[in-house]
Amino acid sequence: MRLFKLPFKNKKNHARLESTIQLDNIPKHIAIIMDGNGRWAQKQGLPRVAGHREGMDNVKRIVKAANHFKVEVLTLYAFSTENWKRPTQEVEYIMKLPIDFLQHYLPELIEENVRIQTIGEVNNLPKKTKSAIMRAIDETSNNTGLILNIAINYGSRFEMVRAIQDICRDVTDGKYDIDDITETALAEHLYTSHIKDPDLLIRTSGELRLSNFLLWQTAYTELWFTDTLWPDFSFEEFEKAINDFQNRKRRYGGI
Ligand code: IPE
Ligand code: IPE
Ligand code: MG
Questions:
Q1: How far is the CA of 132 from the centre of ligand 1 (A)?
Q2: Which domain holds residue 146?
């Protein structure tokens, strides 16, 4: 078991975790439902959008943490297909965040060898949001470190419907036989075709549901919930989630 040192703030807690985190059993793919921005702002007497801004800053912190632990893929749920229901002003604010985030942090992400990818209907995003994201994908495409996979305008049910439509088109065109429709074939038609299923899914803010996130891909994912609101979710808590993951026994239906 390989151990390593971290820049710990709380020495006592960290000393305990430091001795228990196994570097050879880090979840390869971590997915996070970054929830609670609105409530975080309300608690401070601020407008909801202030929570989204704070949440954006926390993305940087957790990306660094994931990179630190050599996680391979970090999928962050940033905006769901259902989030369009929110007031226009809030949606407009959220849509500007990727532009701001990339303007501020892209050089640092490049320096950290992070590769940006997305899942979701990026084509239907506002033009400026889409072009900032496309630029970031392009400029980081040769990086070989952490894949920062942003789920934006993402909905799992839509993803599955879209996959089935694609498959049916191929069947109609005679490229595919009905018997070729296997679990692997369906998975190959999802946005996530090129990445492994998440090993660990974290949801902040105390909600115990998936909210249309990676329904197919989380069949055997370990789930981890915390009451902490996303802007307050820290390096230490991320580490705790990994530590708990390492104490789980994954059986996949076996014994
Ligand atoms: C998560 O925080 C961010 C998005 C869904 C875009 P929320 O905005 O859902 O925060 P709460 O759940 O209302 O506190
Ligand atoms: C899930 O959070 C979506 C994101 C974090 C982007 P929501 O706040 O939209 O989920 P519900 O509505 O509470 O289920
Ligand atoms: Mg929410």
A1: 22
A2: 27-155+197-246
CATH number, domain at 224?
3.40.1180.10
Contacts of 231 (CB under 8 A, 6+ apart): 36, 37, 40, 51, 54, 55, 57, 58
Q: Read off the pTM.
A: 0.94
pLDDT tens for each residue of 185-212 = 999 999 999 999 999 999 999 999 999 9
In-domain check, residue 121: yes
Is residue 255 assigned to a domain?
A: no
Mutate to test the pocket of ligand 1, among 33, 34, 35 (most ligand atoms within 8 A of CB): 35
Q: Which of 37, 80, 90 to mutate for ligand 2's pocket (most ligand atoms within 8 Å of CB)?
A: 80
**Is 6 part of any domain?**
no
* Number of domains comprising the chain: 1
Atom 12, ligand 2: residue with shortest CA distance: 211
How far, in Å, CA of 8 to CA of 26, rounded? 19
Residue 4 lies in a domain: no
| Residue in the block written with tokens 């993305």 | 59
pLDDT tens sequence across 13-36: 565 565 588 999 999 999 999 999
Q: For residues 142 and 124, what is the distance between their CA atoms, to the nearest angstrom?
A: 26
